[in-house]
Recover the amino acids of this structure.
């Protein structure tokens, strides 16, 4: 029997075709063989389905993550792997969120998209979709994690970041090497893959989105910092700090953090640098934050940090200490 892959179409540039006037419209997924005729020759079965609403991924929300996860959960035993067609803009957030939702995932879930619509002559979508399907079919490697395939690289989803609004090579994974490279062959770095679990998949579907991201910049005012930290009902905030996790040492800044933490807000320290890690206490500029109880984010990406915080707050409502502990530990290979 042939291996089976399910395509889940969520929207984004990849699914667009041009009409006779040149305008772009989402294409009907049952016409995928017209858009990518090479798929007629592949050695696995492909089925497809789509979300009720096809969206530009700028409209992505946790509810859509749950809808995607519901499809994977429902069809888990019927397929060897899954390909999620997704807009590139928030693909790294969705890949990160799904990675946390799927505990004990033992099959590949590969997200892909494109910079040019499938229906355009020079589209990068055909190559991306064909390689993503090949990998998801499970015929060439045993992947047991959520990944992004884009322009010849397979990345761990929760390590990836969109880095270009122009190039076909639109994603990067600065703190973890790519898992595979597609050339004449698709070559996997097996030692970098997450181990395949032997226990049953668990899908956790609760997110708490009462979180904020506060990006520091020289000259940031007390009013801005205080207004973010005093957002009604705020449960967690990610501070995008400088370098290895440094922030101003001015009294007003530390007081604002201290008051927020005293009100139960979890503060997560993630660096603005694309590569490298937060090392609390390396400089005096992070010692005070450490003393106040700010949690260090190590080498996590901002996309993984936001979704991990929403996920943990959703999983353990009312148990902030547990959320703080889990935030600082790797859950699905998102931190070193
Ligand atoms: N705005 C589009 C989206 O993210 C861009 C893309 O698909 O590349 O849905």
């Amino acid at each position: 029997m042939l291996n089976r892959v399910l395509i889940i179409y969520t929207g984004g540039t990849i699914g667009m075709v041009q009409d006779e006037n040149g305008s772009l419209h989402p294409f009907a997924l049952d016409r995928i063989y017209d858009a990518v005729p090479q798929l007629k020759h592949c050695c696995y079965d492909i089925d497809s389905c789509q979300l009720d609403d096809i969206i530009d991924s700028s409209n992505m929300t946790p509810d859509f993550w749950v809808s995607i996860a519901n499809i994977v959960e429902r069809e888990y035993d019927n397929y060897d792997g899954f390909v999620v067609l997704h807009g590139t803009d928030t693909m790294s957030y969705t890949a990160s969120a799904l990675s946390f939702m799927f505990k004990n995932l033992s099959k590949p879930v590969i997200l892909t998209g494109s910079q040019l619509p499938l229906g355009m002559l020079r589209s990068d979508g055909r190559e991306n979709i064909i390689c993503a399907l090949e990998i998801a079919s499970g015929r060439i490697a045993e992947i047991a994690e959520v990944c992004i395939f884009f322009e010849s690289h397979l990345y761990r989803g929760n390590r990836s970041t969109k880095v270009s609004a122009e190039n076909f090579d639109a994603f990067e994974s600065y703190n973890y090497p790519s898992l595979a490279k597609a050339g004449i062959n698709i070559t996997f770095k097996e030692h970098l893959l997450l181990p395949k679990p032997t226990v049953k998949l668990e899908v956790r579907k609760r997110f708490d989105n009462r979180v904020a991201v506060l990006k520091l910049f020289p000259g940031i005012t007390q009013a801005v910092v205080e207004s973010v930290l005093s957002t009604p009902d705020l449960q967690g905030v990610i501070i995008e700090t400088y370098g290895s996790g440094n922030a101003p040492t001015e009294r007003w800044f530390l007081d604002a953090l201290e008051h927020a933490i005293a009100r139960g807000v979890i503060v997560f320290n993630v660096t603005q640098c694309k590569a490298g890690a937060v090392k609390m206490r390396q400089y005096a500029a992070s010692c005070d934050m450490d003393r106040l109880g700010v949690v260090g984010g190590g080498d996590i990406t901002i996309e993984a940090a936001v979704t991990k915080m929403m996920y943990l707050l959703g999983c353990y409502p009312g148990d902030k200490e547990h959320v703080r502990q889990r935030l600082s530990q790797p859950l699905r290979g998102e931190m070193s």
About this structure: Residues 11-13, 56-58, 87-89, 113, 115 surround aspartic acid (CB under 6 Å). Residues 166 and 189 are 28 Å apart (CA to CA).
